[in-house]
Design a protein that fits this description.
Helices cover 43% and strands 19% of the residues. The protein is α/β, with parallel strands linked by helices. The strands form 3 sheets. Strands 6-11-10-9-8-7 form a 6-stranded parallel beta sheet. The chain has a 4-stranded antiparallel beta sheet with strand order 3-5-1-12. Helix 9 links the parallel strand 8 and strand 9. Helix 3 packs antiparallel against helix 5, helix 7 packs across helix 8 and helix 8 runs parallel beside helix 9. The two termini are 34 Å apart.
Length: 284
Amino acid sequence: MKINQKEREAAEVLATLALDEDVQTGDLTTNHLVPAGIIRRGVMKAKSEGVVAGLEVAELVFRKLDAALEWHPRVSDGERVRRGDLIVEFSGDYRALLTGERTALNFLQRLSGIATAAHYYVSILEGRQTKILDTRKTLPGFRLLDKYAVRAGGAVNHRTGLYDMVMIKDNHIRVAGGIGKAVASIRGAIAPGIAIEVETSCLREVEEALAAGADIIMLDNMDNETMRQAVTLIAGRAKTEASGNMSPERLVAVAETGVDYISVGALTHSVKALDISQEILEEQ
């Protein structure tokens, strides 16, 4: 799996910012202890089981410090690794490999952590039609990369931001004077093809969203039985998304209500980094 052009552009900006905050005027330790011009080989290995994501971003970090870097991944983004597995081999300027190590690992470990979490949630629903969605609860500035990692783990991206899909929530409904008025007002103002999702908290609101012609109806913080009734009421006339406190223990029961999607903020807002190490190899 590869990052797309927009994700690469985001990675370029983030890598530049990350190196600037870490290196600024120079790596005092490395530049005083490591002679210039030495080429060394290194590896990155998994120290725990998970799913890899962010290899191109890690490479980008090192390449900003050494344009002649040689980079040879032994797995691809989206592949599972176990403790001790070789992830990538590389060679380049010794100073660059040490200076860029922490920044490169920070990107790779975070994105791999997201991919690992996404894979875990998806695996719980293996064989079922319900899909796992991410949310906008991403690290500020990391939106595109965080969502890329979600896809690498096998889950599905929800809207990227406020600009590519309509999400009508309770505060919007109050301002508009009701679900029907909110949907009608927006439907006439946006381009064709842009989906409108409405957040609902009870069956009455589900009926209003249906009558208004919502494309997606969010069943927010409902108990399982109410969600089941909502899905029956909707009967395929709109897509359904379950949201709110979607723990791993609850996923199967929620999926059995028949919802199309379950959104999980924890994929990106509570990331546990995948443990990955870098090692510079001894000269042969």
